[in-house]
Amino acid sequence: MAGIKALVGLSFSGAIGLTFLLLGCALEQYGVYWPLFVLIFYVLSPIPTFISRRLSDSTESSSACRELAYFITTGIVVSAFGLPIILARKSTIQWGACGLVMTGNAVIFLTILGFFVVFGSGDDFSWEQW
Amino acid sequence: MSGFLDGIRCGDCDCNVDWGERRNTIASIAAGVLFFTGWWIIIDAAVMYPLEEDFHRAYHTCGVIATVAFLMINAVSNGQVRGDSYSEGCMGQTGARVWLFIGFMLAFGSLIASMWILFGGFVVPGKPHTYPGIAIFFQNAFIFFGGLVFKFGRTEDLWQ
Q1: ipTM beyond 0.90?
Q2: Contact between chains at A121 and B9 (C-beta distance less than 8 A)
Q3: Which of A39, B72, B81, B153 is at 20 to 30 A from B93, Cα to Cα?
Q4: What is the domain count for chain B?
């Protein structure tokens, strides 16, 4: 039952994050949809951590593989913030849209982190936890 | 309602671990921020100055060599260089030392080259836009320090 509440809370915050992203594209004063490219970074961001957990025991406290996964994940997160800034500097999107997209980024990445904290650190990393 | 917080684990696993065990994670994240910020700085400069006379495309070589150096430095562990790891690796201890030596030489070389590009290519000739030169310098500085943090900020004592 606790798993369901956390799941609902995390999907709510995920929806809020995506709402910020879409507001940055679809509001009348903005109107361009280039910021949707950050969706690629959202999808890519959990993958290195999944791979490193699959390749080693999930009970290991630290390993080179896990740290490499954190390094690459940080890179993906930085890229999701960097792309809107460059689009705004080049005036492809407006700075207000950039701000909304970055807010959406922050919420989505916190949601993904929340998934890992709540659901990911079980003894065997399986999908049947709840 | 009585058990609804049981599924949330942040109170009893990670937050009570002391600084020593988190060190590797924090070093990896800091190195990632530095390295990728460096690359996004140069992407920004390349996007803002698309003309060849403002930003000579050959200057990208510096950042590429710095990235290769980063990968070389972090490909060998400190244990292999000291000779006290269990597996020899394909080149042995001497090979690991030579690899690390070449990696550091490329890293220092690209940092020096970026300063040379900034001053010799942008400041001294008096180019109207010096931002690309500054971006090249900061890209290489960030990649260099990201490599240092990733190499020396982590301790191998935590590995099994």
Answers
A1: no
A2: yes
A3: B153
A4: 1
